[in-house]
Structure formats: C-alpha cells, structure tokens
Amino acid sequence: MKIGAALCVLLLSVIAVHAAEIATADRKSGFEFMGRDTQAMQTDDTSNPGMLNVLDGGALWERPEGADKKACASCHGDASQRMKGVAARYPAFDATAGQVVDLGQRINLCRRDHQKAPELAYESRDLLALSAFVARQSRGQPIAIADDARSANALMQGRKLFNERMGQLNLSCAICHDDNWGQKLGGTSIPQGHPNGYPLYRLEWQAMGSLQRRLRNCMIGMRAEPFSYGSSEFIALELFLMQRAQGMAMESPAVRP
Amino acid sequence: MARALINVPQQAKPGEIIEIKALISHPMETGFRVGHNGQLIPRDIVQTFICTYDGEEIFKADYSPAIAANPFISFFTRATKSGDIVLTWRGDNGFEASETVHIQVA
Q1: pLDDT, one tens digit for every residue, chain A (257 residues)
Q2: How many domains are there within chain A?
Q3: Which residue among B5, B7, B68 places its CB closest to the CB of A206?
Q4: Which of A122, A130, B21, B68 sits most deeply, having the most CB atoms within 10 A of its CB?
C-alpha cells in the first residue's frame, strides 16, 4: 500500500515534469499562429520592416571600425556565403570567452579581439542590425545547436529555468508554451515559444528586438523580476530554447504581433 | 538619409495595372507619449507622402500620429509610359526622403 502510494507520487512527479514536452512532429513556428496579413508582411522582403535593420547591418558589416580599421567583411568576406547557417548554431561554447555566448556576444567578442572596437550595448540599434544581418544569412537553414559537452551545464540550467515556476503568478515557461500552446491568452494565441526568427520585428514594439527582450516581456508578464541582458540565465534559456527547436527552419528577421 | 524598401515592377505593358509598395524607416513619434523626465516627447512624424510618375503627381497621402513606426504604403496605378516613379516623404524636423525607380513600359 505504502509502496503503491510512493510509486504513484513518483509517477505523478515524472508526468508533471516530462508529460508535456512537444513531440518533434508537433512543433510549429510562431509564424503558423499569426494572421495571414502578418504572415504576408514577413514573407515579402519589401514589406518586412526587419529588412530595414538588415540593410543597416549590411552597411555596418562593410564599415571599418576600431583601432585596426577592420570591418567584419575584412576577415569574413561575403556574408551570404560565410555567414550562412552561423546564427542557427548560436548560443554556442566559445573557447576564448570560456563560456557559452549568444550571437550578440559573439559579435562583441569579434569587435573586442579583432577590430579593437568598443563593444556594442545590448539591444542597441547597431548590435540588433548586425545580428539581424548575420541571422538573415541563415534564413531557411535548420537550427543546429552542437552537441557539445562544454555547454551541457548551461543547457541543463536552461531546461531547469524553462520548467521552473517564477514570479507572483507562479508560472513557468513550460506551463504556457509546452502545456497550453494553441490556446488563447487575453485573446491572442499562445505559440510554442520557438526562437527561430530572432532578432525579429515585433508589431507591439514597433521595432526590432532580441530574444532576450522577448524573454523579459514574458517574465514581466509573470510578475517575475527579469534577468538582466547578457546574464548567464538568459544565455542558458536561449540555448535551451534553440536546442528545443533543433532542426526548425530559421526565419530571421521574422515579424511577430 | 532614411532607409526605404521599394517594390515597383521594372517593366510593364501599356495599360497594365501595377502595384507600388513602399516602406520607410521612421520612428513616427506621436507627440502624446511621456518620456522618462515626465516631459512630452516632441512629435516627429512623416506628414506627407507624394508619388510622381514621369513628373506628374499620381498619389498623395497625409499621415497622422496614429500611424505606426516604419509606415508601409501600397497603391495601384496604370502603367502608361516609360519614366521615373519618384516617392517622396516629408515630415517634422525637416525630414525628407526620396526614392526613384525607373519603369520601362513597352
């Protein structure tokens, strides 16, 4: 009897943690939860406002910066060839930094070490533009997070944060995006929360924004204190989200309501 | 110079109806929002958009503060002759941006 009850509790706790993960075949990009008008806006490059930032990023790619007067293009050359699929692999472990870094931090490492230029602030126009330009080169490419033992800890932390209840509303990411996707929250669809279009143009922001800005939005909505930009918690969450969306096609720069 | 994305067909048959689509980067600050210091953020919007086709004005729009940032506009016209299609935006603080596309009608 006692063993039965204990087994029951054990089973329930296992179900509570693992029951809801989305099967690979059921995964859907946020694109599929949008109205047709917003979809059309994203698909046509001349109506996608994110492309304005991509153009800005293309100009920055060519512009010599820092003490060495080197542009991104001086080393990397033609972005359409050399940057293809790169954004789909980040966040990734970086040997020089000795930690997992996301695309924005990788760009800043390049600026610091190779261009000898000041780092760009998180969520600044220039960093978003460069990230968007690099991510644009991966459009249509599958998300391909490497199976790297050095980023295993961050991945584990990210998974934990995703499933952990937080804030005054006592919600976790998983409660909405694993268990209740496709339902409505305040009249809008709850998507599965895949990070395959960042940085993206959000109509609510009327601007481009990073995945971390979006995560801060969700945390504020949960009445939790958001992590700060570039914190290890956010990098871990980003890594877990990308790994969760492994194989899905990149859409950057996406448009979302 | 503000960035703009223009979509106009480069070639058309005489009499064909063509769609002109244009998107410009602009903050479209309404003038009704309050900044961190408690002061109103001054209005900064695009006020007018004008399209000329071979020198002749074919479309004009007045913009208002309720229009979102990076305004997109799309309209139709009939391709009559080869010439330049010039799109011009003017707004607050002396904002002016212009883009020219040549259309071949044959």
Answers
A1: 455 555 444 444 444 444 478 999 999 999 999 999 999 999 999 999 999 999 999 999 999 999 989 999 999 999 999 999 999 999 999 999 999 999 999 999 999 999 999 999 999 999 999 999 999 999 999 999 999 999 999 999 999 999 999 999 999 999 999 999 999 998 899 999 999 999 999 999 999 999 999 999 999 999 999 999 999 999 999 999 999 999 999 999 999 99
A2: 1
A3: B68
A4: A130
A115 secondary structure, DSSP code: I
A chain contacts of residue B73, beta-carbon cutoff 8 Å: none
In a domain, A4, yes or no: no
Binary contact (B7, A46; C-beta < 8 A): yes
Domains of chain B: 4-105 (2.60.40.10)
Q: How far apart are CA A38 and CA A257, in angstroms?
A: 7
| Residue A62 domain boundaries | 25-257
Tell me the pairing of strands B46-53 and B4-7.
unpaired
The verdict on residue A146 lying in a domain is yes
Which residue in this structure is represented by tokens 């989305």? A22
Are residues B54 and B102 in contact, defined by beta-carbon separation less than 8 angstroms? no
For residue A52, list chain B residues with Cβ-Cβ distance below 8 A: 3, 5, 23, 25, 70
A72 is catalytic: no
ipTM above 0.85, yes or no: yes
A46, A54, A126, A136: best to mutate for the B interface, most B CBs within 10 A: A46
Give me A1's structure tokens. Answer: 């009897």
At A112, which CATH number?
1.10.760.10
